[in-house]
Design goal:
Blueprint: H1 3-19, H2 26-32, H3 45-48, H4 59-67, H5 73-80, H6 88-93, H7 100-117, H8 120-134
Helix pairs in contact: 1-7
């Protein structure tokens, strides 16, 4: 998949997410919360066993995760699980050779993928939770 294909897919996901939002957009929520964006990870056990390649990451992000022994979504979720005041982004930044932009890409792609794999009936509720937890 080319970079252009990935951008088109992301735009489709964003458009679908926006369908569930009233009075705001995903872009506005993300921009407003650039430093600290909250979302719950609700992957099933089956999804946690999938390789990180399902996130359609850049080669740099993919290689950084592999070098840090992150092969599955479960590895990633457990690797960035927060405790106390530490954020998932800060946990990713501790990975060798993984910078700010790459950590943002990984978390954003994980957020998009979480939305994609949710059952249709759960998407509306999920997006409301995202807005509530980020627009305080």
């Amino acid at each position: 998949m080319t970079e252009k294909d990935g951008k088109i897919i992301n735009e489709k996901v964003i458009r679908e997410m926006n369908r569930y939002l009233e009075g705001t957009t995903v872009e506005e929520v993300l921009l407003k919360n650039r430093k600290l964006f909250h979302f719950h990870v609700l992957f099933t056990n089956e999804q946690m066993e999938q390789g990180v390649d399902v996130l359609d990451l850049s080669q740099r992000a993919y290689n950084c995760l592999r070098r840090n022994n992150i092969y599955t979504l479960g590895d990633l979720v457990n690797g960035v699980k927060t405790n106390g005041e530490e954020t998932s982004k800060r946990r990713l930044l501790k990975f060798r050779n993984l910078g700010r932009k790459t950590s943002e890409e990984i978390l954003l792609k994980m957020f998009y993928y979480q939305f994609i794999v949710l059952p249709e009936k759960r998407k509306n509720e999920y997006m409301k939770e995202v807005v509530l937890s980020n627009c305080r």
